[in-house]
Amino acid sequence: MKYEGMMIRPPSEARSLLLQVSVGCSHNKCTFCSAYKGEKFRIKTFDEIEEDIIEASGYGYIEKIFLCDGDALIIPMKKLVPILKSINTHIKGVKRIGLYANAKSILRKTPEELAQLRRLGVGIAYLGMETGNDDILQAVNKGANSRQMVEAGLMIKGAGMKLSVTVLLGIGGKAKSMEHALSTARVLTEIDPDYVGALTIMVVPGTPLYEEQVSGKFELPDTFEFLEELGVMVANSNFTNCLFTSNHASNYLPIRARMPQEKDKIVRLIRHVIESSNKKVLRPEYLRGL
User: Fold this and answer.
1) Over the stretch 90-127, which tens digit does the pLDDT of each residue have?
2) Secondary structure class of 161 (helix, strand, coil)
3) Residue 4 within a domain
4) Residue 96 lies in a domain
5) Element at 211 (helix H, strand E)
6) Domain span at residue 80?
7) Pairing between β-strand 22-23 and β-strand 42-43 as defined by DSSP bridges
8) Are 269 and 231 within 8 A, CB to CB?
């Protein structure tokens, strides 16, 4: 398998074959993200991709494949469909193909095109929403507003794919902490995704957000303010059937809960940790990471 640049995949794709179909991120303008800086976005040629697919066919049965990099769904249908057909032709045992998506890449597809991708094996899309607050989305240069996030999420679900939404604790800073939590809960409720992953912002040197922090324009919430955000977000989100996690390495309090069944229990747990101010139950700073 041939890889270029930094390979990033969701935690739930840890056992998946990583098939790189594009390099970098087509948007690559988010102020908090350093993942693909310095990489020029390009879609790999079909010959490059099929060479890797044929190599992977010799690995035996492969149940899950994740298409890298940052937003593989941006690939036009005339290029994406042959890739998926090649996977189905050459690799045995594939039960699910996953990929990153953003609102722009989803909304560029028609419902019929998304349904076709589902028939060809795309079973899950990971949408980096970060926040449901329009002011914050604009400030971090996400490239979409909350209504577009909702529309995009519902389109993925309407196509029969599983939807995993990522939100970012602290992305509004101290100033907009509660606005962020409440707006995000509202949008998550509207989308009603199958999975939600809450990460905690870690400001990376070299990013525009880092420069804002250095200049004093952006101030991070403190440890327990991050948890306040999480608690408000969980308490005000209503899901039909969702696995809500905050067990990424960036998080202070690892949570994995089925919603709505465990919602009240999780809200009580978060409240108890905040009221006790006991940092011993939290992940220490030296163990946190992106």
Assistant:
1) 999 999 999 999 999 999 999 999 999 999 999 999 99
2) coil
3) no
4) yes
5) helix 208-215
6) 11-287
7) antiparallel
8) no
Q: How many CA atoms does the CB half-sphere of 129 hold within 13 Å?
A: 34
Q: Report yes or no on 6 lying in a domain.
A: no
**For 163-194, what is each residue's pLDDT tens digit?**
999 999 999 999 999 999 999 999 999 999 99
Residue 28, both tokens: 């690559």
pTM of the entire predicted model: 0.95
Side chain identity at residue 222, one-letter code: D
Position 82, amino acid = P
Distance of CA 183 to the CA centre of its chain: 18
Mean pLDDT of 208-223: 96
What are the start-end ranges of the E strands in 182-241?
195-200
**Number of domains present in the structure of the chain:** 1
pLDDT interval class at 70 (50, 70, 90): confident
C-beta atoms surrounding 216 within 10 Å: 7
Q: What pLDDT sits at residue 247?
A: 86
CA angle at 186 for the pair 163 and 180, rounded to the nearest 5°: 100
Specify the CATH number for the domain of residue 129: 3.80.30.20
The reply to whether 86 falls in a domain is yes
Both structure tokens of 63: 């149940």
Full strand arrangement of the beta sheet holding 122-130: 17-20, 64-68, 96-101, 122-130, 162-169, 195-200, 242-245, 256-259
Three-class SS of residue 167? Answer: strand
Distance CA 213, CA 218 (A): 5
Spatial distance between the Cα atoms of 105 and 75, rounded to a whole number of angstroms = 8
